[in-house]
Write a structure and sequence with these properties.
heterodimer; A: about 600 residues; mainly alpha; two-stranded antiparallel sheet; 4 strands; B: about 180 residues; about 0% strand; globular
Chain lengths: ~600, ~180
């Protein structure tokens, strides 16, 4: 029946053979589920081996489901302990999703929405108890998340149902990972049928794993229904038929689900999970709910990796498998008897990608992380061109350091002027407007890598004045300003504040020009708008002690003797010159201009 | 510069932070002003500025709330600061992070199995450094959550910087007025 599906899974799994699968199921399932898994399942699943739900699935669908389940269970069982270890990884998502609904077993496509699991898919899972267990492995916490959804892609045959059951076992945890790709439409139908059974089983299974209380409740209820389910194939069959029909129509559905999952993935895991779950639910509402619950029971602690794997599998080949799935659905059609043929959320490995469970999980994690990196790229200015995680991390680290230093610097300034001011909250809040003007001031204190700094210091306005004669003091000031600019204006470009160039002071001109002339002192300052604004000058003036000035400032740049010396010079200069305030704006890498001169003496 | 009142979201982090920060600064100012100038020298600049910085961080963390790992870490440090006044800086790095690191290592013994595949070498060093930078980063086990925290932290830091800069400009104006008198 699920030959296609199986093949796919086998490909993914690297051909886990059924035998190993079953045996493993038996043994590994219990690893996850523990006694809980066995007990409820054993009683409820007549055919199931007493040992595990998975075994049940094995019994049910030894041939067909095995490969699929292998694919799932393999990953699941390989990481029996990982689930507990990666609670944060998948649990969070699962919990989010779990809260959304028990019933919707939709499993979302992985990377973005780790734990969005289509509950509907899970619901279909009920019957395959063994699958439930496997699912449980995957889904540590997702109460609502039912794993089986991840198996949505399973063909509706019993084998898939088994797998779905397994995954539902896992389900709580990483359903989100499990993903939409389980274009569950197909799987949903079969899962719906299996769902109630599986859900119960899964719930029970998960109960052992400390699933949510909801799950436990479901478990108990499911446990009862599980046995009932088993016999109630007729019940399942109509659902299955429903699902099958849905699934048939679904190759489009799959894509829809995949899309949903994809879209959901981008949302918050919880919300996406909820959505995905709801979307997954097609037909077979009640049973789906039950199934979903069962699936939610999926073992909590199971390795998130497994979940991710499952998700990945689903994610990976939504499109490629769509055709297959439609074929599978066709297969499902003729096999109504098996209530286990619920939709599974399959994680399919993309063509040409390794199907090792480890690599799949790894891939999911990488995708998630790369998504985060892209987001951070937007946050960190000037990182759009940067590619690669290492470089990106470097940039992020530098940016965080710069921001922290900026805060330090600003607080330092505030500390100096603190006693003298009354705060006007409103005006402060409206400072943002002003701040945009003086936006460069915030760049002060960035201590970026010095390597990033280029000292442009080209003449700001060559037209403004002829190169003035450099007075000694001006020279010193210029140098100090240059140094400070170099030190403090680090790498992050701020949009140059378009402060009109207002200087008319000769001294300023001198300073500026000299700054430009000395621009080639080797300091590199990144282009940006830097302002040694009045505050800075004021600060320096008010704290005339060089030491007091240097110590805080030294945090903003890697201390080097000349820089400290320059800072000292600036402090002295300012104090001596009685508040010569200068605002300098760095237009670009080659130009700097004095924005404003306080003119105060 | 005539203040122009732009509509501000009353619930944004920026607003919350600004309110808290201003309150903290006012409190600090009162504290520094209350002792008469003759009685005790004004607190050293470094202490003052560290206090202000701490106030800024604390107010930002309080504005964010305990939703984020890093805000929780900062709040923890602030509270522990009450016990030991000068442990602001050191506490940031040594005690909490040391303990957390240990715990993390133990926990990571197993989780690392999966992570190691992709994150050996430079990545590890960088992530370690990022953990040190971001408050509470020590506790964020996996890279994904760490990056999440980092993104939020960056956003809040920028808010802090912008607001402080605005405050600074405001002060500057006042300061100018004062100076001119």
């Amino acid at each position: 029946m699920d030959v296609e599906g199986k093949d796919e899974f086998e490909q993914e799994k690297g051909g886990e053979d059924l035998m190993s699968y079953h045996s493993r199921n038996v043994s590994s399932d219990w690893r996850f589920g523990g006694p809980n898994l066995t007990n409820p399942l054993m009683g409820s699943i007549p055919t199931a081996k007493p040992m595990t739900v998975c075994s049940e699935g094995a019994l049910m669908e030894s041939s067909s489901s095995a490969p699929i389940m292998d694919s799932f269970g393999h990953s699941v069982w390989d990481h029996p302990t990982s689930t507990s270890q990666n609670p944060g990884y998948c649990d969070i998502n699962l919990q989010n999703s779990a809260t959304t609904s028990n019933n919707t077993l939709g499993i979302r496509k992985g990377p973005l929405a780790p734990l969005s699991i289509d509950r509907t898919v899970d619901i279909g899972w009920a019957p395959p108890n063994p699958i439930v267990k496997g699912g449980g492995v995957f889904l540590p916490n997702a109460h609502g998340m039912l794993l089986p959804h991840s198996l949505s892609q399973f063909p509706a045959d019993s084998g898939f149902i088994e797998r779905a059951a397994r995954f539902s076992c896992f389900g709580r945890g990483n359903f989100g990972n499990m993903v939409n790709s389980f274009s569950a439409s197909e799987s949903m139908n079969p899962f719906a049928r299996i769902g109630p059974v599986m859900m119960q089983q899964a719930q029970e299974v998960f109960g052992g794993n400390g699933l949510n209380s909801d799950v436990k409740m479901n478990e108990t209820s499911k446990g009862v229904s599980l046995s009932a389910e088993q016999g109630a194939t007729t019940e399942g069959s109509p659902l299955k038929n429903e699902r099958r029909s849905n699934s048939f129509g679904m190759s489009g559905n799959e894509s829809d689900e995949a899309q949903n999952s994809g879209a959901d993935g981008q949302d918050n895991p919880s919300s996406s999970k909820a959505i995905g779950l709801k979307k997954r639910k097609r037909g077979g509402g009640g049973q789906d709910n039950e199934l979903g619950q069962n699936e939610a029971l999926q073992p909590t602690g199971e390795a998130t990796n497994d979940n991710t794997e499952i998700e990945q599998k689903g994610d990976l080949t939504p499109t490629s498998t769509s055709n297959k799935q439609s074929g599978k659905h066709g297969k499902q059609g003729p096999q109504p008897s098996d209530s286990q043929k619920e939709e599974y959320i399959h994680i399919r490995a993309r063509r040409g990608q390794a199907t090792n469970s480890h690599s799949l999980a790894e891939r999911v994690r990488r995708e998630k992380i790369s998504e985060r990196m892209k987001f951070l790229q937007d946050l960190v200015p000037g990182c759009s061109k940067v590619t690669g995680k290492a470089v990106m991390l470097d940039e992020i680290i530098n940016y965080v350091q710069s921001l922290q230093r900026q805060v330090e610097f600003l607080s330092m300034k505030l500390a100096t002027v603190n006693p003298r001011l009354d705060f006007n909250l409103e005006s402060l809040l409206t400072k943002d407007i002003l701040q945009s003007r003086a936006g460069a001031s915030s760049t002060l204190g960035y201590s970026h890598d010095m390597s990033h700094m280029t000292m442009p210091f080209a003449p700001l306005h060559p037209s403004q004045s002829g190169v003035p004669v450099m007075a000694n003091s001006s020279d010193a000031l210029r140098r100090s300003i240059n140094t400070q600019l170099a030190a403090m204006s680090e790498g992050y470009k701020d949009p140059s504040s378009q402060v009109p160039n207002m200087w008319g002071e000769d001294e300023l001109h001198n300073v500026v020009q000299m700054g430009f002339n000395s621009g080639s002192n080797g300091n590199r300052v990144t282009a940006g708008a830097w302002v040694i604004n009045r505050d800075m000058a004021n600060f320096l003036v008010s704290n005339a002690t060089p030491a007091s000035v240097i110590s805080p400032l030294s945090t903003y740049y890697t201390a080097s003797p000349e820089k400290l010396k320059f800072v000292t010079t600036v402090a002295e200069l300012f104090s001596r010159q009685a508040k010569l305030w200068i605002e300098v704006e760095l237009l670009d890498e080659t130009k700097m201009r004095v924005v404003k001169d306080s003119g105060m003496r | 510069m005539t203040p122009q009142f732009s509509p501000m979201n009353p619930n944004s982090i920026k607003t919350r932070f600004t309110h808290r920060f201003l309150r903290a600064l006012k409190r600090l100012r009162k504290n520094t002003k209350s002792p008469t100038a003759a009685s005790s020298p004004p607190p050293s600049f470094s202490l003052r500025y560290q206090t202000v910085k701490m106030a800024a961080d604390a107010s930002m963390a309080a504005a964010v709330g305990p939703r984020r790992v890093w805000s929780r870490a900062i709040l923890r440090k602030v509270r522990s600061r009450g016990f030991s006044a000068r442990r602001i800086r050191s506490g940031r790095r040594s005690t909490a992070s040391g303990v957390v690191r240990r715990i993390r290592r133990i926990k990571n013994g197993k989780t690392r199995v999966e992570e190691k595949i992709g994150f050996f070498g430079d990545d590890h060093r960088k992530t370690e450094e990022l953990r040190r930078l971001v408050p509470g980063g020590e506790e964020a086990m996996d890279l994904y959550s760490l990056l999440d925290e980092t993104a939020h932290y960056i956003k809040c830091l920028s808010t802090q910087v912008h607001t402080s800069g605005g405050l600074k400009s405001e002060k500057r104006n006042f300061g100018l007025m004062k100076k001119s008198q």
